[in-house]
Structures are given as structure tokens and as C-alpha cells.
Amino acid sequence: MKLSLSVLLLGILALSIPLQAQKPSPPYTPVIMPNGVGTLPFKMVNGAKEFRLTVEKIRHEIAPGMVVNAWGYNGGTPGPLIEVVEGDRVRILVTNKLSAPAAVHWHGLFLPSGMDGVTGLTQRGIRPGETFRYEFTLKQHGTFMYHSHADEMVQIGLGSMGFFIVHPKKPARKVDRDYAIMLNEWYVEPGASTPNPNEMTEFNLFTFNSRAFPGTAPLVARPGERIRIRLGSVAQDFHAIHLHGHSFKITATDGGDIPASAQWPETTVGFGPGQTRDFEFTATAGDWAFHCHLRHHPMNAMGHGIPNMLGVDQRDVEDSVRKQVPGYMGMGKEGMHDMQDMGMEGPENTLPMMAGDGPFGPVGMGGMFTVLKVHPGMPKFASQAEYSAKVRLPGDMGWYPNPPGTVAGPVTEDPKTDTPPATPSIKVHETPAKPKSHSH
Ligand SMILES: [Cu+2]
To answer: How many angstroms does the Cα of residue 38 sit away from the middle of ligand 1?
Structure first.
């Protein structure tokens, strides 16, 4: 009996292995959300892809050393990626595990009005413990979002958001890597763990996929690869996301594809809340900063209410204030770097304004900041899960080995010792310059 059972199990195993191996790869490059919780699995039920989303209270790590109380989906903020194909019929079963009514709006999608997820207007709120069914057929492709449309100030403010990405049935072109990053900002009183959703303007944490540098995963690529980055925002602020070392074209918004004749080159994509932007470029070797260009946004908590102490020598003052206010830290005489160099400890459960190390020392950044690492031989990742298993923090996947003579360094202004670097022997760019003709 025991033997026949194990034979049966072996048989099932043998059958299931080839079935797994035959699983066809999707006709698109799977989207990767760095630091994401995963791509939402589905079951085919009566011709529809059936997904399950649960809105719930979660504990969420913004970066190592800081955990907040958030409201997310299926254990994450942003929630899991819903990734489908134009023409699919989808059924999303949404369970509310909050103690307040909820609803999920499918941002940018063409659907029956009654499936639009606006509390009071198109449905009643999903009561705590209830499950609602949303069902519609996808009539378009692009980068869309899902988010709460019940008490948005609180629910989105605490993280109830996610990506809903619809691939075209017949893609006009296939990219080598496809990334998605959702922006948000938060106000968390230093030392507290619950974001204050009443805050309108004075945010102190700015996040990519609800992570702040030095907790943001890098994006990776190989030189020459075609990369798409999709940005989405249900934040409160405008953001201007800048990529170093490249020029790109914005190819789509959540309103649809932009015709090639209407695309123009950019290095920064500025956009507001309730918008998505897709942009594409060819990757050039290096470690490239990728960040919001609003000056306070690649920074972390602590700095906003402080007096301007630039140029003020505070050595004695700070010590005496600290006797009264433990942990007091003024703005440095020469700016915020003073504090970073001192490695000072802040209150518990917050992040220093700037933190994290690069190959050349401390990185003067925080918040909406990560790195695009374009290295030869960078591994390919077939799924978000595979990516997340290997790439979580800025230092993961190593740093770019700059060719000799291509790194900025000190000069002494002494012609004997300062010799200009030799022309590098390693070509960083793929296209070699045409040799000049000297015939005339
Ligand atoms: Cu910003």
C-alpha cells in the first residue's frame, strides 16, 4: 500500500515536471517592479482570468531600520502587479480586511461604469469582511493603476495602490527589460510608525515602490539593451524623475500610446498625481543615478522644520541644546553633509536625510533615488519573483568597473605630476567614431 502510494506520487511528479517545462513563455517581457511584492497569480474560471486582492493593514519596511503601519494589498504597498493582455476578460475578487469601507478603482481603464469602484457613485463601499466582484474585458493596452476610491486621503495616503499593466495583443516592439515604479510621499513623525495622512504639503519621505534610498533596489541592464521604465503616481506632489547618462522618449501615458511623430527626447519626466508615463531608451554602460529632481525628494526624514544654520558656527550651542533635547541636531554650518560625516544617530524608526554607501563612499542621497546599473553580463530575470530574490538593495549586483582613466579625481595643478589620462583602451560606447580623413 505504502509502495503503491509512493509510485503514484512519483508518477504525478514525473507528469507534472514536463507540464511545468512546457508552460509557454508569455508573448511579452514580464514587468519587474523593483522591491515589489510580486505578480498576482490568476486562475482561469469561466473564460476569465480570476485574481484575488485583499486590502489590509500591513507592516511595511521603507528602508532597513524603518518600518511603518501601512494599508496595502496582499501584504504589500504597492500591491501585487496585475499583468494582463489586451482582450482578456478579468475578474478581480476584492476582500476588505480593513475596519472601514473600501473600494478599488481601476485607474485609466475603459470599463462599465458600475465596475469603476467609486464609493457611493458606482457602488456601495465594500464592508469589512465582504468580498466584491469586479469583472470587465480589457479594450486597450498600457500602464494603468488600481487604488482605493474610498476615503482616499487616508487609504491612498497609507499605501493602497498598485499597477495594472495591460500588454498589447501584438506588441509593436519587444523591449529587453521592462520596469515599473510607483511614486508616493508620506509624512511620518520621526520616532512614530504611522504615516500622518492629514499632511498636505510637508512630506518627509519620498518613495519609489514605497521604498526610500538606501532601501531602493537598483534597476539592472546590459549595454545596448532596450529598456522601458513605467512610472505611476497617486501621490500628492508633482515629481520630475531624471535619469543620468541617457536620453529617452516618452512613448505612452495612461491615456494611450504617443505616436512616434509626437515623441520628443527628454532626460527628465515631469508628471503629476493620477498620471502614468512610459519611456524607452538604449542602455549605456555605467552606474547611473535615477532620482526625482525636486531637491527635497532625494532626501529622507528629519530636515523640514529646522532653522537655516548655513554659515553659523554652532559647536557649543549644539552641545548645550542636546542636554535639554536629547538627540537634537541642527543644520550643519556647511550643509547637511556635516551630519552625514558625523554618522549621528537620529530618533528610533526614522531615516537619516542621506544614507547608503556607494563604491566611492557615502552617497549624499535618500528618498526617491536609485541606480540604473548597466553592466556587461548582467543576468536576465524571467520574473519579478526571480528579480526580488536577488536584487533588493542598492549595492546588490555589484558596481560598474570604470575603465582606467575615466573616473574623476583630484588634480594638484603641478604639470610634473598631473598628466591627462590616457585615452581609455576599453570602449564604453558601442558605436566607434569614424576615422577622420587627412588627405587634403
Ligand atoms: Cu519628487
So the answer is: 25
Query: Quick check: helix, strand or coil at residue 147?
Result: strand
Tell whether 414 is covered by a domain.
no
Q: What is the pLDDT of residue 301?
A: 77
Output the CA 178–ligand 1 centroid distance in Å: 22
The single residue listed with the C-alpha cell 512610472 is 231
User: What are the residue ranges in the chain where pLDDT is below 70?
Assistant: 1-24, 302-309, 321, 325-347, 354, 417-440
Residue range 76-88, pLDDT digits in tens: 999 999 999 999 9
What spacing in Å lies between the alpha carbon of 235 and ligand 1's midpoint? 10
Q: What CATH number should be reported for the domain holding residue 146? A: 2.60.40.420
Kindly state the cell numbers that stand for 29: 517581457
Q: How far is the CA of 121 from the centre of ligand 1 (A)?
A: 32
Domain assignment present for 182: yes
Q: Bridge-partner residues for 107, per DSSP?
A: 145
Grid cell of 21 as nine digits: 517545462
Give the position of cell 533596489: 217
Residue 396 included in any domain: no
Which three-class secondary structure string do you get for 42-62? Answer: CEEECCEEEEEEEEEEEEEEE
Q: Which pLDDT score, from 0 to 100, does residue 185 have?
A: 94
CA of 294 to the centre of ligand 1 (A): 5
Please count the structural domains in the chain.
1
Distance CA 220, CA 387 (A): 10
Give the distance (Å) from ligand 1 centre to CA of residue 241.
Answer: 7
In a domain, 284, yes or no: yes
Instruction: Please give the distance, rounded to the nearest whole angstrom, from the Cα atom of residue 395 to the centre of ligand 1.
Output: 23
User: What is 247-291 written as a DSSP string?
Assistant: -EEEEEETTEEPPGGG--EESEEEE-TTEEEEEEEE--SEEEEEE
User: Three-state DSSP class for 339?
Assistant: helix
CA dist 302 to 205, 217, 366, Å?
9, 23, 12
Q: What pLDDT is recorded for position 326?
A: 61
What's the predicted TM-score (pTM) here? 0.84
As a whole number of Å, the CA-based R_g of the chain is 25
* Secondary structure element (H or E) that encloses residue 155, with its range: helix 152-155
Domain that holds residue 76: 43-292
| C-alpha 206 to ligand 1 mean position (Å) | 7
